[in-house]
Amino acid sequence: MKVLFATSEIAPWVKTGGLGDVAAALPPALRQAGIDLRVLTPYYPAVRAAIPEARAPEVAKLGNFGGAYADSVLRAAFAPDGSRLLLLDCPAYFDRPGNPYLGPDGKDWPDNYLRFGLLSRVAAWLGSKANPFPWWPAVIHCNDWQTGLAPAYLKLSGDARAKSIITVHNLAFQGLFSEQTLPELGLPAHAWSMEGIEYHGYLSFLKAGLQFADAITTVSPTYAAEIQTDAEGMGMSGLLRHRADRLSGILNGIDTEVWNPKRDAHLPFTYDIATLAAKRKNKSALQQELGLTVRDDIPLFGVISRLTAQKGLDLVAALERQIADLPAQLAVLGSGDRELENEFRRLAEIHPGHFATVIGFNEGLAHRIEGSVDVFLMPSRFEPCGLNQMYSLRYGTPPVVRATGGLADTVVDDVNGFVFEEATAAALFTAIQRAHAAWHNRERWRAMQIDGMSRDVSWTAPAMQYAALYAKLKK
Ligand code: ADP
Ligand code: GLC
After folding, report:
1. CA-to-CA distance for 299 and 224, rounded, in angstroms?
2. Which one of 59, 73, 142, 409 has the fewest CB atoms closer than 10 angstroms to its CB?
3. Could you tell me the distance, in angstroms and rounded to a whole number, from the CA of residue 362 to the centre of ligand 1?
4. Where are the domains positioned within the chain?
5. Pick from 79, 73, 97: which is nearest to 27 by CA?
6. What's the 17 CA to ligand 1 centre distance in angstroms?
7. Residue 402: pLDDT above 70?
Protein backbone atom coordinates (compact mmCIF):
# COMPACT_ATOMS: atom_id res chain seq x y z
CA MET A 1 0.00 0.00 0.00
CA LYS A 2 1.55 3.31 -1.12
CA VAL A 3 0.44 6.51 0.56
CA LEU A 4 1.47 10.12 0.05
CA PHE A 5 1.20 12.17 3.25
CA ALA A 6 0.97 15.87 2.37
CA THR A 7 1.72 18.42 5.08
CA SER A 8 2.66 22.08 5.46
CA GLU A 9 4.58 21.48 8.72
CA ILE A 10 6.94 18.83 9.97
CA ALA A 11 8.77 18.79 13.31
CA PRO A 12 11.44 19.43 14.34
CA TRP A 13 12.12 21.79 11.44
CA VAL A 14 8.83 23.59 10.86
CA LYS A 15 6.23 23.52 13.58
CA THR A 16 3.62 26.04 14.66
CA GLY A 17 1.53 23.55 16.63
CA GLY A 18 0.35 19.98 16.81
CA LEU A 19 0.27 19.35 13.04
CA GLY A 20 4.07 19.57 12.95
CA ASP A 21 4.36 16.92 15.65
CA VAL A 22 1.79 14.67 13.98
CA ALA A 23 3.52 14.92 10.59
CA ALA A 24 6.80 13.85 12.18
CA ALA A 25 5.48 10.95 14.27
CA LEU A 26 2.54 9.41 12.42
CA PRO A 27 4.46 8.56 9.20
CA PRO A 28 7.06 6.34 10.96
CA ALA A 29 4.22 4.57 12.81
CA LEU A 30 2.47 4.02 9.47
CA ARG A 31 5.64 2.55 8.01
CA GLN A 32 5.75 0.21 11.00
CA ALA A 33 2.20 -0.78 10.10
CA GLY A 34 3.42 -1.81 6.64
CA ILE A 35 2.54 1.31 4.62
CA ASP A 36 4.99 2.48 1.93
CA LEU A 37 4.73 6.13 2.81
CA ARG A 38 6.29 9.33 1.51
CA VAL A 39 5.84 12.73 3.06
CA LEU A 40 5.36 15.69 0.72
CA THR A 41 6.29 19.00 2.30
CA PRO A 42 7.81 22.32 1.15
CA TYR A 43 11.58 22.65 1.07
CA TYR A 44 11.60 25.45 3.66
CA PRO A 45 14.98 26.93 4.70
CA ALA A 46 14.93 24.91 7.95
CA VAL A 47 14.36 21.68 6.00
CA ARG A 48 17.08 22.65 3.52
CA ALA A 49 19.50 23.28 6.39
CA ALA A 50 18.76 19.85 7.86
CA ILE A 51 18.74 17.98 4.54
CA PRO A 52 20.98 19.89 2.14
CA GLU A 53 21.60 16.78 0.05
CA ALA A 54 18.07 16.48 -1.25
CA ARG A 55 18.46 15.58 -4.91
CA ALA A 56 18.79 12.03 -6.25
CA PRO A 57 17.24 9.57 -6.87
CA GLU A 58 14.30 11.48 -8.29
CA VAL A 59 14.15 15.10 -9.20
CA ALA A 60 11.19 16.32 -11.18
CA LYS A 61 10.90 19.70 -12.77
CA LEU A 62 7.39 20.96 -12.28
CA GLY A 63 7.49 23.50 -15.10
CA ASN A 64 4.20 22.18 -16.45
CA PHE A 65 2.38 24.02 -13.67
CA GLY A 66 2.75 27.31 -15.49
CA GLY A 67 4.51 30.62 -15.13
CA ALA A 68 4.46 31.28 -11.44
CA TYR A 69 5.56 27.74 -10.67
CA ALA A 70 8.18 27.43 -13.38
CA ASP A 71 11.00 27.27 -10.88
CA SER A 72 9.62 24.37 -8.86
CA VAL A 73 11.44 21.12 -8.47
CA LEU A 74 10.44 18.03 -6.53
CA ARG A 75 13.34 16.48 -4.66
CA ALA A 76 13.38 13.02 -3.15
CA ALA A 77 15.31 12.65 0.07
CA PHE A 78 15.67 10.69 3.25
CA ALA A 79 15.06 12.29 6.62
CA PRO A 80 17.68 11.58 9.30
CA ASP A 81 15.40 8.84 10.71
CA GLY A 82 15.32 7.10 7.33
CA SER A 83 11.86 8.31 6.32
CA ARG A 84 11.28 9.09 2.69
CA LEU A 85 10.46 12.68 1.83
CA LEU A 86 9.37 14.47 -1.32
CA LEU A 87 10.44 18.07 -0.94
CA LEU A 88 8.71 20.75 -2.93
CA ASP A 89 11.48 23.15 -3.85
CA CYS A 90 10.05 26.44 -5.06
CA PRO A 91 12.30 29.22 -3.72
CA ALA A 92 9.92 31.98 -4.80
CA TYR A 93 7.29 30.57 -2.44
CA PHE A 94 9.08 28.72 0.29
CA ASP A 95 12.54 30.22 0.70
CA ARG A 96 11.26 32.43 3.53
CA PRO A 97 12.52 32.08 7.07
CA GLY A 98 10.49 31.66 10.24
CA ASN A 99 6.82 30.86 10.55
CA PRO A 100 5.55 29.05 7.43
CA TYR A 101 2.37 31.13 7.17
CA LEU A 102 3.27 34.60 8.47
CA GLY A 103 5.60 37.29 7.25
CA PRO A 104 7.83 39.38 9.51
CA ASP A 105 4.90 41.77 10.09
CA GLY A 106 2.96 38.94 11.78
CA LYS A 107 0.40 38.90 8.97
CA ASP A 108 -0.39 36.03 6.59
CA TRP A 109 1.79 36.07 3.47
CA PRO A 110 -0.48 37.58 0.79
CA ASP A 111 0.36 34.77 -1.65
CA ASN A 112 -0.51 31.91 0.73
CA TYR A 113 -3.19 30.73 -1.69
CA LEU A 114 -0.52 30.27 -4.36
CA ARG A 115 2.00 28.72 -1.98
CA PHE A 116 -0.35 26.11 -0.56
CA GLY A 117 -2.28 25.92 -3.81
CA LEU A 118 0.98 24.67 -5.33
CA LEU A 119 1.52 22.18 -2.50
CA SER A 120 -2.04 20.87 -3.00
CA ARG A 121 -1.61 20.74 -6.72
CA VAL A 122 1.59 18.76 -6.58
CA ALA A 123 -0.02 16.30 -4.13
CA ALA A 124 -2.93 15.81 -6.56
CA TRP A 125 -0.54 15.47 -9.50
CA LEU A 126 1.31 12.65 -7.73
CA GLY A 127 -2.05 10.91 -7.26
CA SER A 128 -3.01 11.32 -10.91
CA LYS A 129 -2.17 9.39 -14.07
CA ALA A 130 0.21 12.25 -14.99
CA ASN A 131 2.62 11.23 -12.21
CA PRO A 132 5.80 10.37 -14.13
CA PHE A 133 7.47 8.44 -11.29
CA PRO A 134 7.25 4.66 -10.94
CA TRP A 135 5.84 5.25 -7.43
CA TRP A 136 2.05 5.57 -7.57
CA PRO A 137 0.30 6.27 -4.30
CA ALA A 138 -3.08 4.62 -3.81
CA VAL A 139 -4.07 7.27 -1.28
CA ILE A 140 -3.25 10.96 -0.91
CA HIS A 141 -3.52 11.83 2.77
CA CYS A 142 -4.04 15.60 3.17
CA ASN A 143 -3.89 17.62 6.37
CA ASP A 144 -5.81 20.81 7.11
CA TRP A 145 -6.61 23.63 4.69
CA GLN A 146 -3.05 23.95 3.41
CA THR A 147 -3.43 20.75 1.41
CA GLY A 148 -7.23 20.92 1.24
CA LEU A 149 -7.32 21.77 -2.46
CA ALA A 150 -5.63 18.47 -3.39
CA PRO A 151 -8.83 16.38 -3.28
CA ALA A 152 -10.53 19.02 -5.45
CA TYR A 153 -7.71 19.06 -8.02
CA LEU A 154 -7.77 15.27 -8.06
CA LYS A 155 -11.51 14.92 -8.59
CA LEU A 156 -11.80 17.81 -11.03
CA SER A 157 -8.83 16.71 -13.15
CA GLY A 158 -10.64 13.63 -14.39
CA ASP A 159 -7.45 11.55 -14.36
CA ALA A 160 -7.23 10.58 -10.69
CA ARG A 161 -5.46 7.34 -9.91
CA ALA A 162 -5.49 7.74 -6.11
CA LYS A 163 -8.19 8.16 -3.49
CA SER A 164 -7.91 11.05 -1.05
CA ILE A 165 -8.33 11.63 2.66
CA ILE A 166 -8.42 14.93 4.46
CA THR A 167 -7.61 15.03 8.15
CA VAL A 168 -9.03 18.02 9.97
CA HIS A 169 -6.66 19.10 12.72
CA ASN A 170 -8.55 22.31 13.35
CA LEU A 171 -11.82 23.39 11.73
CA ALA A 172 -11.17 26.99 12.76
CA PHE A 173 -8.55 27.44 10.04
CA GLN A 174 -10.49 27.32 6.78
CA GLY A 175 -8.11 28.78 4.21
CA LEU A 176 -10.43 31.53 2.94
CA PHE A 177 -9.46 33.59 -0.11
CA SER A 178 -11.23 35.84 -2.59
CA GLU A 179 -13.13 34.55 -5.61
CA GLN A 180 -10.50 36.18 -7.85
CA THR A 181 -7.98 33.50 -6.85
CA LEU A 182 -10.00 30.78 -8.63
CA PRO A 183 -8.50 31.16 -12.13
CA GLU A 184 -4.99 31.76 -10.72
CA LEU A 185 -5.30 28.46 -8.92
CA GLY A 186 -6.19 26.80 -12.20
CA LEU A 187 -9.61 25.74 -10.96
CA PRO A 188 -12.56 25.55 -13.37
CA ALA A 189 -15.32 28.16 -13.08
CA HIS A 190 -17.92 25.47 -12.36
CA ALA A 191 -16.11 24.61 -9.11
CA TRP A 192 -17.43 27.92 -7.77
CA SER A 193 -20.68 26.71 -6.25
CA MET A 194 -22.15 25.69 -2.94
CA GLU A 195 -21.57 22.03 -3.86
CA GLY A 196 -18.01 22.99 -4.80
CA ILE A 197 -15.50 25.20 -3.09
CA GLU A 198 -17.47 28.38 -2.54
CA TYR A 199 -18.03 29.24 1.10
CA HIS A 200 -20.07 32.34 1.94
CA GLY A 201 -18.56 34.28 -0.93
CA TYR A 202 -15.02 33.02 -0.34
CA LEU A 203 -12.95 30.25 -1.81
CA SER A 204 -12.24 27.83 1.05
CA PHE A 205 -9.37 25.38 0.79
CA LEU A 206 -10.74 23.42 3.74
CA LYS A 207 -14.24 23.17 2.32
CA ALA A 208 -12.73 21.92 -0.95
CA GLY A 209 -11.13 19.09 0.99
CA LEU A 210 -14.29 18.27 2.93
CA GLN A 211 -16.34 18.32 -0.24
CA PHE A 212 -14.11 16.30 -2.56
CA ALA A 213 -12.12 13.90 -0.36
CA ASP A 214 -13.11 10.23 -0.36
CA ALA A 215 -12.76 10.15 3.41
CA ILE A 216 -12.64 12.77 6.15
CA THR A 217 -10.98 12.15 9.45
CA THR A 218 -10.46 14.33 12.45
CA VAL A 219 -8.14 13.88 15.36
CA SER A 220 -10.46 12.57 18.08
CA PRO A 221 -13.83 10.79 18.20
CA THR A 222 -15.39 13.47 20.40
CA TYR A 223 -14.33 16.26 18.03
CA ALA A 224 -15.75 14.24 15.11
CA ALA A 225 -19.13 14.35 16.84
CA GLU A 226 -18.83 17.98 17.98
CA ILE A 227 -18.12 19.39 14.52
CA GLN A 228 -21.37 17.96 13.21
CA THR A 229 -23.31 20.25 15.56
CA ASP A 230 -24.20 23.80 14.58
CA ALA A 231 -22.73 25.08 17.85
CA GLU A 232 -19.25 23.71 17.14
CA GLY A 233 -19.18 23.12 13.40
CA MET A 234 -17.75 26.58 12.58
CA GLY A 235 -20.11 26.96 9.64
CA MET A 236 -19.19 23.55 8.18
CA SER A 237 -21.57 21.40 10.27
CA GLY A 238 -24.17 21.02 7.49
CA LEU A 239 -21.57 19.76 5.03
CA LEU A 240 -20.05 17.47 7.68
CA ARG A 241 -23.45 15.98 8.54
CA HIS A 242 -24.07 15.50 4.84
CA ARG A 243 -20.80 13.58 4.60
CA ALA A 244 -21.15 11.83 7.97
CA ASP A 245 -20.80 8.38 6.39
CA ARG A 246 -17.30 9.41 5.24
CA LEU A 247 -16.28 11.06 8.52
CA SER A 248 -14.52 9.40 11.44
CA GLY A 249 -12.39 10.39 14.41
CA ILE A 250 -8.99 8.79 14.95
CA LEU A 251 -7.33 9.90 18.15
CA ASN A 252 -3.81 11.30 17.78
CA GLY A 253 -0.90 9.61 19.44
CA ILE A 254 2.40 11.17 20.47
CA ASP A 255 6.03 10.48 19.66
CA THR A 256 6.96 8.44 22.71
CA GLU A 257 10.68 8.79 21.95
CA VAL A 258 10.78 12.57 21.54
CA TRP A 259 8.48 12.87 24.57
CA ASN A 260 10.09 10.42 26.94
CA PRO A 261 11.01 11.66 30.43
CA LYS A 262 13.48 8.81 30.75
CA ARG A 263 15.58 9.97 27.79
CA ASP A 264 14.73 13.63 27.33
CA ALA A 265 17.92 15.56 26.57
CA HIS A 266 16.20 18.83 27.45
CA LEU A 267 15.67 17.79 31.08
CA PRO A 268 18.35 18.42 33.72
CA PHE A 269 17.18 15.20 35.44
CA THR A 270 15.55 12.35 33.56
CA TYR A 271 13.12 10.01 35.30
CA ASP A 272 10.51 7.30 34.96
CA ILE A 273 7.86 5.79 37.24
CA ALA A 274 10.51 4.20 39.45
CA THR A 275 12.52 7.43 39.81
CA LEU A 276 9.76 10.01 39.99
CA ALA A 277 11.51 11.85 42.84
CA ALA A 278 13.96 13.27 40.25
CA LYS A 279 11.09 15.27 38.79
CA ARG A 280 11.21 17.49 41.87
CA LYS A 281 14.82 18.39 41.11
CA ASN A 282 13.65 19.54 37.70
CA LYS A 283 11.10 21.70 39.45
CA SER A 284 13.74 23.62 41.40
CA ALA A 285 15.88 23.92 38.27
CA LEU A 286 12.94 25.36 36.36
CA GLN A 287 12.08 27.73 39.20
CA GLN A 288 15.65 29.01 39.02
CA GLU A 289 15.60 29.23 35.23
CA LEU A 290 12.40 31.29 35.25
CA GLY A 291 13.15 33.44 38.28
CA LEU A 292 10.48 31.84 40.46
CA THR A 293 11.00 31.41 44.18
CA VAL A 294 12.54 27.96 44.70
CA ARG A 295 10.18 26.07 46.98
CA ASP A 296 8.44 22.71 46.95
CA ASP A 297 5.73 23.24 49.54
CA ILE A 298 3.30 24.69 46.97
CA PRO A 299 2.39 23.35 43.53
CA LEU A 300 3.70 24.85 40.30
CA PHE A 301 1.16 25.04 37.47
CA GLY A 302 2.32 25.12 33.86
CA VAL A 303 1.02 26.26 30.47
CA ILE A 304 2.54 25.76 27.00
CA SER A 305 0.29 27.06 24.30
CA ARG A 306 -0.58 29.15 21.35
CA LEU A 307 -2.15 32.18 23.04
CA THR A 308 -5.48 32.32 21.20
CA ALA A 309 -9.14 32.31 22.20
CA GLN A 310 -9.31 28.57 21.41
CA LYS A 311 -7.07 27.72 24.34
CA GLY A 312 -9.18 29.45 27.04
CA LEU A 313 -6.15 30.98 28.75
CA ASP A 314 -8.03 34.22 29.40
CA LEU A 315 -9.81 32.13 32.05
CA VAL A 316 -6.45 31.41 33.71
CA ALA A 317 -5.52 35.10 33.55
CA ALA A 318 -8.85 36.00 35.15
CA LEU A 319 -7.98 33.74 38.11
CA GLU A 320 -4.56 35.29 38.82
CA ARG A 321 -5.42 36.43 42.35
CA GLN A 322 -7.09 33.15 43.33
CA ILE A 323 -4.19 31.07 41.95
CA ALA A 324 -1.59 33.20 43.73
CA ASP A 325 -3.58 32.99 46.98
CA LEU A 326 -3.96 29.16 46.91
CA PRO A 327 -0.97 29.51 47.12
CA ALA A 328 0.52 28.20 43.89
CA GLN A 329 3.01 29.24 41.24
CA LEU A 330 2.40 29.55 37.50
CA ALA A 331 4.79 29.22 34.54
CA VAL A 332 3.49 30.22 31.11
CA LEU A 333 5.22 29.64 27.75
CA GLY A 334 3.35 30.82 24.71
CA SER A 335 2.91 33.21 21.85
CA GLY A 336 0.02 34.47 19.78
CA ASP A 337 -2.49 37.22 20.41
CA ARG A 338 -0.70 40.40 21.49
CA GLU A 339 -3.29 41.15 24.19
CA LEU A 340 -2.87 37.78 25.88
CA GLU A 341 0.91 38.00 25.59
CA ASN A 342 0.82 41.39 27.33
CA GLU A 343 -1.62 40.16 29.95
CA PHE A 344 0.63 37.26 30.96
CA ARG A 345 3.69 39.58 30.95
CA ARG A 346 1.79 41.89 33.27
CA LEU A 347 0.83 39.03 35.62
CA ALA A 348 4.48 37.99 35.92
CA GLU A 349 5.32 41.57 36.85
CA ILE A 350 2.66 41.90 39.54
CA HIS A 351 3.36 38.46 41.05
CA PRO A 352 7.18 38.31 41.09
CA GLY A 353 8.55 34.99 42.25
CA HIS A 354 5.08 33.50 41.85
CA PHE A 355 4.27 33.83 38.17
CA ALA A 356 6.69 33.61 35.26
CA THR A 357 5.94 34.28 31.59
CA VAL A 358 8.06 33.48 28.57
CA ILE A 359 6.71 34.78 25.28
CA GLY A 360 8.06 32.95 22.24
CA PHE A 361 8.37 29.48 20.79
CA ASN A 362 10.91 27.41 22.70
CA GLU A 363 11.00 23.64 22.21
CA GLY A 364 13.54 22.96 24.97
CA LEU A 365 11.64 25.01 27.54
CA ALA A 366 8.42 23.21 26.53
CA HIS A 367 10.07 19.91 27.45
CA ARG A 368 11.39 21.33 30.71
CA ILE A 369 7.96 22.62 31.69
CA GLU A 370 6.38 19.21 31.02
CA GLY A 371 9.14 17.55 33.04
CA SER A 372 9.10 19.99 35.96
CA VAL A 373 5.72 21.48 36.79
CA ASP A 374 3.23 19.70 39.06
CA VAL A 375 0.02 20.38 37.15
CA PHE A 376 -0.58 21.29 33.50
CA LEU A 377 -3.41 23.68 32.59
CA MET A 378 -5.33 23.25 29.31
CA PRO A 379 -8.76 24.90 29.68
CA SER A 380 -9.48 24.94 25.91
CA ARG A 381 -12.82 26.20 24.62
CA PHE A 382 -12.45 23.61 21.87
CA GLU A 383 -9.62 21.17 21.24
CA PRO A 384 -9.62 18.87 18.20
CA CYS A 385 -7.17 16.57 19.97
CA GLY A 386 -4.48 18.35 21.93
CA LEU A 387 -1.04 16.89 22.43
CA ASN A 388 0.18 18.65 25.56
CA GLN A 389 -2.28 16.85 27.83
CA MET A 390 -0.81 13.57 26.54
CA TYR A 391 2.76 14.82 27.01
CA SER A 392 1.65 15.76 30.53
CA LEU A 393 0.26 12.28 31.26
CA ARG A 394 3.51 10.77 30.06
CA TYR A 395 5.61 13.15 32.17
CA GLY A 396 3.71 12.51 35.41
CA THR A 397 2.16 15.98 35.27
CA PRO A 398 -1.60 15.54 35.82
CA PRO A 399 -3.46 17.95 33.53
CA VAL A 400 -6.48 20.14 34.28
CA VAL A 401 -8.56 20.10 31.09
CA ARG A 402 -11.97 21.12 29.86
CA ALA A 403 -14.23 18.28 28.71
CA THR A 404 -13.98 18.99 25.00
CA GLY A 405 -12.66 17.18 21.90
CA GLY A 406 -9.56 15.10 22.41
CA LEU A 407 -9.14 16.35 25.96
CA ALA A 408 -12.33 14.49 26.90
CA ASP A 409 -11.03 11.39 25.11
CA THR A 410 -7.63 11.24 26.81
CA VAL A 411 -7.90 12.49 30.40
CA VAL A 412 -9.83 10.59 33.07
CA ASP A 413 -11.17 12.81 35.84
CA ASP A 414 -9.74 12.13 39.28
CA VAL A 415 -7.78 9.18 37.89
CA ASN A 416 -4.97 10.87 35.97
CA GLY A 417 -6.13 14.49 35.74
CA PHE A 418 -8.97 16.92 36.39
CA VAL A 419 -11.81 17.51 33.96
CA PHE A 420 -14.32 20.36 34.10
CA GLU A 421 -17.32 21.14 31.90
CA GLU A 422 -18.23 24.83 31.64
CA ALA A 423 -15.86 27.24 29.90
CA THR A 424 -15.94 29.65 32.83
CA ALA A 425 -13.31 30.87 35.26
CA ALA A 426 -15.44 29.54 38.15
CA ALA A 427 -15.57 25.99 36.75
CA LEU A 428 -11.85 26.09 35.96
CA PHE A 429 -11.09 27.27 39.47
CA THR A 430 -13.04 24.40 41.04
CA ALA A 431 -10.87 21.99 39.05
CA ILE A 432 -7.71 23.88 40.02
CA GLN A 433 -8.72 23.66 43.68
CA ARG A 434 -9.28 19.92 43.32
CA ALA A 435 -5.82 19.56 41.76
CA HIS A 436 -4.32 21.69 44.52
CA ALA A 437 -5.88 19.50 47.23
CA ALA A 438 -4.89 16.27 45.50
CA TRP A 439 -1.28 17.47 45.14
CA HIS A 440 -1.05 17.95 48.90
CA ASN A 441 -1.96 14.27 49.34
CA ARG A 442 1.36 12.76 48.28
CA GLU A 443 0.14 9.17 47.97
CA ARG A 444 -2.90 10.03 45.93
CA TRP A 445 -0.84 12.29 43.71
CA ARG A 446 1.69 9.56 43.02
CA ALA A 447 -1.10 7.17 42.05
CA MET A 448 -2.43 9.73 39.57
CA GLN A 449 1.01 10.30 38.11
CA ILE A 450 1.59 6.58 37.73
CA ASP A 451 -1.78 6.06 36.03
CA GLY A 452 -1.00 8.76 33.45
CA MET A 453 2.55 7.51 32.86
CA SER A 454 1.27 3.97 32.28
CA ARG A 455 -1.27 4.84 29.56
CA ASP A 456 -0.55 3.90 25.95
CA VAL A 457 -0.49 7.25 24.16
CA SER A 458 1.72 6.02 21.32
CA TRP A 459 0.88 6.10 17.62
CA THR A 460 0.74 2.31 17.36
CA ALA A 461 -3.03 1.89 17.68
CA PRO A 462 -4.01 5.03 15.70
CA ALA A 463 -1.64 4.02 12.87
CA MET A 464 -3.50 0.70 12.58
CA GLN A 465 -6.77 2.62 12.27
CA TYR A 466 -5.36 4.80 9.47
CA ALA A 467 -3.96 1.72 7.74
CA ALA A 468 -7.41 0.07 7.89
CA LEU A 469 -8.99 3.20 6.41
CA TYR A 470 -6.44 3.27 3.55
CA ALA A 471 -7.21 -0.37 2.82
CA LYS A 472 -10.95 0.32 2.79
CA LEU A 473 -10.50 3.22 0.35
CA LYS A 474 -8.29 1.24 -1.98
CA LYS A 475 -10.95 -1.42 -2.47
P1 ADP B 1 -2.28 23.15 18.75
O2 ADP B 1 -1.85 22.35 17.59
O3 ADP B 1 -3.69 23.55 18.72
O4 ADP B 1 -1.40 24.34 18.98
P5 ADP B 1 -1.49 20.82 20.34
O6 ADP B 1 -1.62 20.56 21.79
O7 ADP B 1 -1.96 19.80 19.42
O8 ADP B 1 -2.15 22.24 20.07
O9 ADP B 1 0.04 20.99 19.95
C10 ADP B 1 0.80 22.08 20.34
C11 ADP B 1 2.27 21.74 20.13
O12 ADP B 1 3.00 22.95 20.01
C13 ADP B 1 2.88 21.00 21.29
O14 ADP B 1 3.96 20.21 20.84
C15 ADP B 1 3.40 22.14 22.17
O16 ADP B 1 4.41 21.72 23.03
C17 ADP B 1 3.89 23.08 21.12
N18 ADP B 1 3.91 24.49 21.52
C19 ADP B 1 2.88 25.37 21.57
N20 ADP B 1 3.31 26.58 21.95
C21 ADP B 1 4.63 26.47 22.14
C22 ADP B 1 5.67 27.39 22.53
N23 ADP B 1 5.40 28.67 22.79
N24 ADP B 1 6.93 26.92 22.61
C25 ADP B 1 7.21 25.62 22.34
N26 ADP B 1 6.29 24.71 21.97
C27 ADP B 1 5.02 25.13 21.87
C1 GLC C 1 -4.58 21.27 15.83
C2 GLC C 1 -5.47 21.23 17.05
C3 GLC C 1 -4.95 20.32 18.14
C4 GLC C 1 -4.43 19.02 17.57
C5 GLC C 1 -3.39 19.31 16.51
C6 GLC C 1 -2.80 18.04 15.89
O7 GLC C 1 -3.68 22.31 15.82
O8 GLC C 1 -5.73 22.53 17.56
O9 GLC C 1 -6.01 20.06 19.06
O10 GLC C 1 -3.85 18.25 18.60
O11 GLC C 1 -3.95 20.04 15.48
O12 GLC C 1 -3.77 17.20 15.34
Report:
1. 35
2. 59
3. 10
4. 2-253+460-474, 273-454
5. 79
6. 4
7. yes
Looking from the CA of 261 toward its CB, the CA atoms found within 13 Å total 31
pTM: 0.96
Angstrom distance (rounded) from CA 442 to CA 445: 5
**What is the reported pLDDT for 146?**
98
* Chain centroid, CA 94 distance in Å: 20
Q: Which CATH class is domain 273-454?
A: alpha beta
Please tell me if the CB atom of residue 366 comes closer than 6 angstroms to any atom of ligand 1.
Answer: yes
**Amino acid at residue number 101:** Y
CATH topology identical between 2-253+460-474 and 273-454: yes
Question: Does ligand 1 lie within 6 Å of residue 392's CB atom?
Answer: no
How far is 115 from 42, CA to CA, in rounded Å? 9
Ligand 2 and 462: CB distance under 6 A: no
- The CATH homologous superfamily of the domain defined by 2-253+460-474: Glycogen Phosphorylase B; (3.40.50.2000)
Q: Is the distance from the beta carbon of residue 411 to the nearest atom of ligand 1 less than 6 Å?
A: no
Read off the pLDDT of each residue in 133-139 and give the average, rounded to a whole number. 93
The ligand with the least distance to the CA atom of 11 is 1
Q: Does the beta carbon of 331 sit less than 6 angstroms from any atom of ligand 1? A: no
Q: What is the 3-state secondary structure (H, E, C) of the chain?
A: CEEEEECCCECCCECCCHHHHHHHHHHHHHHHCCCEEEEEEECCHHHHHHCCCCCCCCEEECHHHCHHHCCCEEEEEECCCCCEEEEEECHHHHCCCCCCCECCCCCECCCHHHHHHHHHHHHHHHCECCCCCCCCCCEEEEECHHHCHHHHHHHHHCCECCEEEEEECCCCCCCEECCCHHHHCCCCHHHCCCCCCEECCEEEHHHHHHHHCCEEEECCHHHHHHCCCCCCCCCCHHHHHHCHHHEEECCCCCCCCCCCCCCCCCCCCCCCHHHCCHHHHHHHHHHHHHCCCCCCCCCEEEEEEEECHHHCHHHHHHCHHHHHHCCCEEEEEEEECHHHHHHHHHHHHHCCCCEEEEECCCHHHHHHHHCCCCEEEECCCCCCCCCHHHHHHHCCCCEEEECCHHHHHHCCECCCEEEECCCCHHHHHHHHHHHHHHHCCHHHHHHHHHHHHHCCCCCHHHHHHHHHHHHHHHC
| CB of 168 sitting under 6 A from ligand 2 | no
Does the pLDDT of residue 63 top 70, yes or no?
no
- Mutation test residue for ligand 1: of 10, 305, 459, the one with most atoms within 8 Å of CB: 305
pLDDT, tens only, 361-381: 999 999 999 999 999 999 999
Nearest CA to ligand 2 atom 10: 386
Q: Which residue has the least CA distance to atom 6 on ligand 2? A: 18
